[in-house]
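CO-FOLDING WORKSHEET

Operator: S.A.
Ligand of interest: zinc ion
Run index: 235
Mode: holo prediction, single chain
Checklist:
[x] sequence pasted
[x] SMILES validated
[ ] output reviewed
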Amino acid sequence: MSYCVNCGVELDSSLDHCPLCNTPVINPNELKRIADAVPPFPEQRGEVDTVKRRDFTLLIGIILTATSASCLLLNLLVFTGSLWSLFIIGACLLLFIVLLPAITTLHLPMYLSLALDGAGIAFYLYLISFTTADQHWFFALAVPIVGLCTILCEIFAILMKHFRVSYLTTTLYFFVETALLCMGLELLIEHFFTKPMRLTWSAIVLTVCAVISITLLTILSRQRLREAVRRRLHF
Ligand SMILES: [Zn+2]
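OUTPUT RECEIVED:
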């Protein structure tokens, strides 16, 4: 028979809390029995070794090379109608370049890996240009657009690395870069189609981005305003 240490009420042996005052019921004999019992789970955790990056790189490389080679052979020997295998070879190469920072043991600087991604995309488009009747679009439109996107990504990476980063600054960079991208795209497309170079649809994007950017700059430059926004948006 046991009694509550707090209120003295008589307790049933199955209770773990006093029904009257909610004091926990602790039986020292029970504690010892639990401590002595063999735990139901193993003491050592069996962990699977992580895959070595070199093995993973090799595996990915072999899969992509095998895919490219088999498609090339199919293209040359069976389905010879068009150069369709260039699409797949280019995609495999691009995938490898994009995955390179994740799979390789080499720690590529971010700028270099972004530049490689841009070059990979340009090379993919170059391969695609062989399947079209005219390659003029590649040099006159694709290369400048890929170059513009790569440069903007590099600038974004530099800003994120060297300046104070918060949600507000990241949003500011994003809108400024979006405005620049849209303006650049419109001008490049007009230049390609030999139209007069002037802003139309990108002017609307530019206006919206300018309003948002000015708002963000005002918030960022006033500490009280910045703190108020930060508290309200919980970051
Ligand atoms: Zn009690």
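REVIEW:
The chain has a mean pLDDT of 86.
Residues 163-235 form one domain.
[x] output reviewed
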